[in-house]
Amino acid sequence: MQKLVFKTAKKTKRGRDVIMKFSYKNFSCDTEIYYKDKDIIVRFFDSSKEQEEDDIINLVIVDPGYGYLCLKYKGDAALLSGFLDEDIFSSDDHIDAAISFIEILSPNSKYIYTPYHITLFKQTSFIEYNGEY
After folding, report:
1. What is the pTM of this model?
2. What is the pLDDT, as a whole number, of residue 133?
């Protein structure tokens, strides 16, 4: 497997715990990492498509991002689940890199049983309300 690249984490003011870069092969994206006790949720997205607070006035386009992974601890085990965009996470290597990314963020996961189920999705349509119509 190709080496994963992580940029230094930083705290933010908007209720997010940490923002980092996820890079694997020819793909790179931003991640938001949310912590609750030992549990972790990672959101994969493109920050250039996110609107700033001052931009949220009338016409707002909300980008859903590339998916989420959730690592939830249950006693002496953990469960890993999530949804990833199959256009972005298009190979087993890319999916394994995303799994490794969240496991590296949680040192507790290294020594415990962690079954996982990750659903790949393909966007076919969407429902939208943006304040205009």
Report:
1. 0.82
2. 57
